[in-house]
Amino acid sequence: MSRPPAEPAPWWYPVQRGFAWPNEKRAAACFTFDVDAESPILFDHPETAGWLDVMSHQAYGPRTGVPRILRLLDRQGIRATFFVPGYTAERWPDAIRSIRDAGHEIGHHGYLHEGARSAADAEVEERRLLRGLEALDTVAGVRPIGYRAPMWELSYRLPALLEKHGFRYDSGLMDSDYPYRLAVTDDPNGPSIVELPGHWSLDDWEPYVYLPGLSGSGVIASPAEVIARWTLELEALVEEGGLFMLTNHPFVSGRASRVAGLERLIARAREIDGLWIATAAEIAAHVETLPLEPVIHTQPVVPPPA
Ligand SMILES: [Zn+2]
User: Fold this and answer.
1) How far, in whole angstroms, is CA 6 from its chain's centroid?
2) What is the CA(151)–ligand 1 centre distance, in A?
3) Cα 148 to averaged position of ligand 1 atoms, centre (Å)
């Protein structure tokens, strides 16, 4: 009996070292903050709306973390990208406006931080996308051009929805150290957006978060260890000419010693010759100018059991 052929290996992966960064820069670093606040906990565990202890843990982000992080960015003289769920904007409008007023970029991060795996179809995903857009517009008068998927969960159908609604980049896939053009259809000549990849190891949630019964292992890492790990990745990616895409959450990394550690990392990044520190929108705008062949993500076909 013949079997269906395995999916071919992606032909578009070049053995790549370096990237055409602007103005003779040799690598890029992007510091991002996902202003989740209560949203992810409420989406996964709606019963926690009545738990003041858990809600206060999440409220630390907009109430304490955001102002401290804005002061840090101001001291270091860099601009960052904040991905904001619509619900967070509605619940904490002053915090979101303070981010906007400080000159940072605001990106889309769902409405109630809905993971894509919970969406039954494209219609549900589109409704969430539009609801998030409406909230950011109403609260801050912002129309984001960038998207980061809540929980880093992306469906194969989402890139097309992003393109349809005028987004210019996504930040969250994990298959490259370099930005690339993300095809939104199977047609290599069809429409595409920019992808700015990230990774779990450059996300502060994993080492730091402990919410009993809700998230985390109970082992809370030291900022000394986390910053050392991120610094290694930063320096190695500079050598590779790649993109260092760091993701912090104000409710997580807004804590005093974590911000102090982050400040050391940013100061280190600023010392590196030829490292471009930019917002995600600035990097996406540069990538749009490059003649890159769009990457088509083909969904694998699971072979039948033997
Ligand atoms: Zn998030």
Assistant:
1) 32
2) 6
3) 8
